[in-house]
Write a structure and sequence with these properties.
transmembrane, 11 helices, about 0% strand, mainly alpha, MotA/TolQ/ExbB proton channel
């Protein structure tokens, strides 16, 4: 598990609780059923309207993925590809058939299988690029849900505030004094508070985390694609290594070089 994610999901609630209680307030002052319905209900309805229902339903799965550490390691993938390159260089591509069955990553497994099957290099490149594009589209659709949530929930919070203000101002016509204004204003602002917490405490950070995870995965897929095409082209393993480590920062390059040696 990536321990940073659950901690950062809990912290907004903890910080708000500290701010409320530490400031001498009461939790009861920040709980209002009507405000919750307007903000959460209105925001959720707009979110479903703006996105594919299947994508919205799949949001918990996306959060579950964030809770887990990536299953891939750039270093290990490069080492695996270099090993494949050396073996193919010595004994031919067909000898990789058994090794491919042990590959856990579907993208790498599919690409290497295409190579072993003798698929045209340009077709291999097109198929794998299409796969990458589809992965990016799926990731973008999930991230869009959180980006939309970051704008829609505060908007509905503002709508709730306007509703509260109208009700408060109407009540003043009945002879309400300053006490009525203070109480009414507090209730009116709660919906804005709810929307702001949802957007800034959860939606935007999760969207940012998804973007970072996608960027990392996209780089891994690019490494795999470059390695697969180099193996198919029969490149020298040393050239394959130089190509693949160029994707990495200096510290990781050194780690790979130490593991594979100068070969």
């Amino acid at each position: 598990m990536d321990i940073i994610v659950p901690i950062c999901l809990i912290m907004p609630l903890a910080i708000n609780l500290f701010g409320i209680i530490g400031g001498g307030g009461s939790l009861g002052n920040f709980l209002d059923i009507a405000s919750i319905i307007v903000t959460a209900g209105g925001g959720a309805n707009s979110l479903i309207m703006a996105n594919d229902i299947g994508t919205v339903i799949g949001v918990p799965k996306a959060i579950k993925v964030l809770l887990q550490k990536p299953a891939y390691s750039e270093d290990q993938i490069i080492i695996t590809l270099i090993s494949f390159s050396e073996k193919a260089r010595r004994e031919g591509l067909l000898v990789l058939e058994d090794d491919i069955q042990e590959v856990s990553d579907p993208f790498l497994k599919k690409g290497m299988q295409l190579v072993v099957d003798g698929t045209d290099p340009e077709l291999v490149k097109n198929i794998l690029n299409t796969e990458i594009d589809n992965i990016e589209a799926r990731h973008d659709s999930v991230r869009k849900v959180f980006d939309d949530a970051a704008s829609l929930f505060p908007a509905w919070g503002m709508i709730g505030t306007l509703i509260g203000l109208v009700i408060m101002l109407r009540s003043l016509g009945g002879g309400g004094g300053l006490e009525t204004i203070g109480s009414g204003m507090a209730v009116a602002l709660i919906t804005t508070y709810y929307g702001s917490v949802i957007a800034n405490g959860f939606a935007l950070p999760i969207s940012g985390r998804l973007a970072a995870r996608h960027s990392s995965e996209a780089m891994v897929k690019s490494i795999m694609l470059e390695g697969i095409l180099s193996i198919q082209a029969g490149d020298n393993p040393r050239i394959v290594k130089d190509k693949l480590v160029s994707f990495l920062p200096p510290a990781q390059r050194q780690k790979v070089n130490e593991q594979v040696g100068d070969r």
